[in-house]
Every structure is written in structure tokens, then in C-alpha cells.
Amino acid sequence: MSQFWKPGTERPRLVDDEEGGVLLYTTSSSSSSGFGYGSLEKQRQRLPVYKYKTAILYSVETHATTIIVGETGSGKTTQIPQYLKEAGWAEGGRMIACTQPRRLAVQELTRVKFLTDGVLLREMMDDPLLSKYSVIMVDEAHERSLSTDILLGLLKKIQRRRPELRIIISSATIEAKSMAAFFNTRRRREEEQGPTKEPAILSVEGRGFNVEIFYVDDPVSDYVRSAVSTVMSIHDQERMGDILVFLTGQDDIDTAIQLLTEEAQSSGKQGLVSVPLYSGLPRADQDLVFSPTPRGKRKVIFSTNIAETSLTLEGIVYVVDSGFSKQRFYNPISDIENLVVAPISKASARQRAGRAGRVRPGKCFRLYTEDYFSNEMSVVGIPEIQRSNLVSCVIQLKALGIDNILGFDWPASPSPESMIRALEVLYSLGVLDDDAKLTSPTGFQVAEIPLDPLISKMILASCEFGCSEEIITIAAVLSIQSIWIPVRGVQKQLDEAKLRFAAAEGDHVTFLNVYKGFIQSNKSSKWCHKNFINYHAMRKVIEVREQLKKITQRLGIGLKSCEGDIQTIKKAITAGFFANAARLEPFSHNGMYKTLRTSQEVYIHPSSVLFRVNPKFIVYHSLVSTDRQYMRNVITIDPSWLTEAAPHFYQKQLHSSFPQ
DNA sequence: GAGCACTGC
């Protein structure tokens, strides 16, 4: 492994601090306490990454791939693309790309493009070699999101065809070596021309302060209770400073806040302000997290993983880490994605602890034992690609002309079962042909629409059925987490509000009613409030719908309304979701259904307008599994539509399921 | 009568 630095500058340091204990954040001076005055240039020079400018540029010049190990706050994301531009990498009509797993609000430099991994993947559909870019920087690669992994695999391929392309991968310490191994394409005694193929690793320190770590002596049986009592003792014994508590979901968070309020009341403790934080929270409530803590008070933020990567909170001095988060797991045999509370990795634990050291030295209280951390916790989490349904991923690779999906060189390979399942689903949708090639035009069109292929297929079908106006609304609503406001204690009112829009045909049609009402109200937030509808979610529906409208126009498909012909709408939905059909068990007293495809026991989700209605045949949008398998968002269908929509899928194997 | 970590086009 090679490292380069310029004599006279500080030698780059390869951090290797995978052990627990005090985090090895190094911070050079008091300069980290803010920018003070001075020119913009001076400010840039004070960022930790500045010291490595020459080393980074030298490495990029001489290496095909450079891996930058950098802690948060080093300034790498904003500065490195700028250094590259100043060094001439954006000259001669070339550009620099910097990708993130999430959207980022950064200033757009000319000839430097900040974009998400997913968007860059989309760009490859028009420009497979990404030929307009001279350097591509993949930021936060250690998060191993689905799109990041696909992108890394493709970049490695592109590098073979474009030796002049430079890749920068910014990653946390723990992943750096495996990234380097993945991109090391150098063969022994190979005559090297141009940049060396062996990746360089550079390490840049962050701006964080030391965080002292504490563990519990014995395993805790109830992390919510334990988190609350830890908060109480921090409040008792530690100096002022806000507390961030990592829990797994809304339920945990609500319970914890209730417990804390009770305990503070019964013990007469004052000065604690609890704030919940999770993605489903209405915007106004989320903003409370950022409001300054009143003088003499201590803010306690109870958060999901959203505070681990997506949001940065200022003023946190104490972190309480439950050691758990909700994670998605996919079972290719049952074709079901589950959200499960699972132990986090050491990498996550480090990231969480680091949240305590942004303003001054902090403390992190881990609600698990040191022995557990050292001996049982996995070093890194399972990459998303090994925990997901791969239908979207496979169609994207197919669209990029990658035929041998099973032989693709991944940073981490998904299971063959998942890939085969994805191929089967795409085949049944008519997107792939017998040779596993994209069909024309359906396959290419579905690949062009950046949504779940089942949804894309539904949209294409709606054009034939003449109900695309309605279907793109439904597609937009389905891509939003929830349009209802999550409210505890006023469940009854929410249910009543829902009834105002409920359609006998099911949830999708109900969504259409909500959308119509929202438009008729002139997109009023008051109207949303009155009807327990999430205003921001509805704005988002409008936005996504506009995008879908543009995409359909680009595909040369006109929008058309079916003017209230609901049966047509349901047929279009069935054309995409025929595989998700279920039939009510005869004589079932508890609403048990069986899926037509695999005879799995499933139930209508209590949030559905068809809950307790239990029609004989239904099609569902997705399954969510807890103690039971629940079907979310269902519509009634006529079973004959299934054979109409997918004769190849149903005629052979399942005709015996149909009573009529 | 249950629950939804996150993200994107």
C-alpha cells in the first residue's frame, strides 16, 4: 500500500484505530472553535483538509484511485473538488463529479457537479463511460448504500476502458483497506503506463473533540428504560450540554419521552426538554430539534438513525447509544423485505459517539458491555445490497448493457438467490425476454422510469388503459412514506378523517380522493391539518407527480384521464402488481388471506380502508411483517384480470386457485 | 386493530 506526501508538508497518517476506548480524534488547535474573521481564503486554509492539499493533488495525479480517509468536519467534501478544479482537472471541457448517498445543499461550482450516486448512475444510461468527467469523487462510500455499491462496481469497469479517469473514494477508516483491495487492479510485472493502478490511501483528520466512552457493567434488558435512567443520571451528575439518545423507532422514542417526563416529575427534577426526532415527524416538529436550548435548560433529543448520518445536530455533548437500529432485511425465498431491530456495527457505534464531540470534548454512554463491543459487535454493517430486493438494481445494470449480472464484480456480492429472484420478477413483468435481455419497448421504457419496476409497469399499462392521469398520482403517493399525520392518542379522529376519503375499491382509489380534495382546497395547509393529512407529504406528491409527468412525456406517452372509470384504474394497477395477489381463505373468521403465488398466510393491514372489509380477491402494494405478514395498500380485483394481465404467470401454475 | 430506519429518480 503506497502513501505519498510532499516533503515539507505533514506526513499523511494512516489511522488504524479500530479498537474501542477513547476515539482518536485529533484536533490541532483552538482554531476548531469557529472561523472568526478573515477572508474566505483564510477560512479555507483553516480547514484540516488544507494541510493535505498538495498530497491529495499529487496522489490524484499519480494514482488511478485515491482513497481519502477522513473524519467528519475535515472539509473534504467541499474542498477537494475545489482543489481539483484549481489544479486544472476541470479544464479542456472536462468536469469533476462529487457524489453523495443523499442530496446535499452545497454551492455549485462551475464545472464541478455535486450529485447523488443514483443520479450519476442515471447519467450513465446516456453516457456509459461518464466521458465528460475527469475525476469522480465518491463521498461517504463507507455507508455502502445500494447505489454507492453499484456505482463502485461500474467505476471499476469504466477505469479499465478509461485509464485516464481518476477516482477518489472518501471513506471512514474501517472500510479503507477493503476499498483499496477492490480497486487494486494492478497485476504483477505489468507494464504500467499512466497513473499507477494500486490505490493510494491518505488520511485527513477531522475537527472533532475527544469523546470519552463509557460502557454498562452488565447487559441491559430494556434499552429504553436504561436510556431514560442514563439521561437522568447525566442530568444529575454532568455539567450542562445537550444529550442525544439513539433509539430505533417512533415507538421507542414516544415511550422514552413519556418515561422521562414521568421520572422527572416524580423526582422533582427540572430543566429537561425532550424532543423526538424521526423522519415521519411533521416538519414543524423536526425543526424543534434545531431551536436553541433555553438558558438553564438541557435538551434531550431522542432520535432514530436519522441523526447518525442524515442530520447534523449542534450543541450535543452527551450521546446515549442503545446499540440497536432498525434495519432492512430481504428474504429472496419469500420475496419479503422486513424491518428488524438489529444490533449496530462498531462503525455505527463510532459514528454515533462522534456526534458528542462537535463543540467540545464529550461523553458517550453505551448501553452494552465493553466485552460485547470488543468481542461480539461486527466491525462493519452488512452492505445494503445484501439486504435488499434487487429488482431495480438488476434492471439498471441491464439498461447499461451488463448482461452477465451474476458475474458482475461487486464490492460485496449479493446472494445468487436474490439476483435470480430479481431476474424472475423482471421476466414475469415482460421487461426481460427469454435470453434475459431487455424487451423493446417495455423493458427499455421501464428502465427509463426511476421507480420500482412494478410501479413503472403499472404506469406504462395505464397509458394503454387510458388512465395515466390517475395512475401517476397513485404512483406519486406510493413513493411517499405516508400522507397521513402520525398522531398518538387521536387515532379515532385519524380513522374518521380517513373515512371521509375512503373508497370501497381500496387504498389506491382513496389516495385519488385525497389528492382531489387537496387540489380543490387550493393546496391548503389548513385543509390538510383539518383532515389529518401531512401537508409536506402532499407537496412532495405534487412534486413527484410533476416529475413523472415529464418522464412520461419524454417517453412519448400522453397523459389521459379515465374520467372516474375506477375499474380501468384497478386493471392498470393489476398489470404491474399481479404477482401480489391474495385470496381470502374460505370460512376464515380472522381475515386470513393466502397469496396466490406462494400460499403464504397474510392479512390486510389495519391502516387499510379495506381492513375488516375482507373482499375475496385483492392485490397489495407491499408486505410488511411483524408478528404477522400484513398487506399494505390493497385494492379489490376480479381474478380474471390476473390471467388477462399475466397469462404466462398465472395460467400454468395457478389456475386451480380460481374457484369460478 | 398496527406501526414507518434512511434515500432517490
From TrEMBL:
Annotated ranges, domain Helicase C-terminal: 227-401
Native source organism of the sequence: Solanum stoloniferum
Sorted alphabetically, which Pfam families does this protein's record hold? HA2_C, Helicase_C, OB_NTP_bind, WHD_HA2
Indicate whether Transferase appears among the record's keywords: no
Q: Which PROSITE patterns match?
A: DEAH_ATP_HELICASE, HELICASE_ATP_BIND_1, HELICASE_CTER
Q: Where is the Helicase ATP-binding domain?
A: 57-192
This protein's name = RNA helicase
Q: Name one GO molecular function term.
A: RNA helicase activity
Tell me the Gene3D superfamilies matching this sequence.
1.20.120.1080, P-loop containing nucleotide triphosphate hydrolases
